Amino acid sequence: MPVFEKVDLLSLELLTIDVQTPEVYTSKRRAVKVDGVAQIKVKGDDISIATAAKQFLSKATEDIKNIATKRWKDICAPFWAR
């Protein structure tokens, strides 16, 4: 009887991402460009590792960077004009 196993790796190392937004305008018509650095680190306890595994295990580093960039833009969005 064949047995199949799948192994995925989840890095617990610090992942640093440069996050940039395009120039946008606030509700007061001021141009704003927000740049930042996001640091993603999985804590070593069982609950944190399980949570990170659910969210990131099947994702490449580039996918994780895209998620962080989207989240950064979501945080900044309320300050932008609509």
The major β-sheet equals: 2 strands, antiparallel
- Mean pLDDT comes to 83
Strand content: 15-25%
**3D shape:** elongated
Indicate the structural class.
alpha+beta
Give the SSE string: EEEEHH
Poorly predicted ranges: none
Q: Helical amount among residues, as a percent range?
A: 25-40%
- The strand line-up of the biggest sheet is 1-4
How far do the termini sit from each other?
A: 61 Å
**Count of beta strands:** 4
Radius of gyration (Å): 18 Å
Number of helices: 2
Chart the SSEs and their pairings.
Blueprint: E1 15-20, E2 24-25, E3 31-32, E4 35-40, H1 46-56, H2 61-76
Antiparallel strand pairs: 1-4, 2-3
Task: Give structural notes.
By secondary structure, the chain is of the alpha+beta class. Helices cover 33% and strands 20% of the residues. It contains two helices and four strands; from the N terminus they run E-E-E-E-H-H. The strands form two sheets. The chain has a two-stranded antiparallel ribbon with strand order 1-4. The longest helix has 16 residues, at 61-76. It is elongated, with a radius of gyration of 18 Å. It starts with 14 loop residues before the first strand and ends in a 6-residue tail after the last helix.
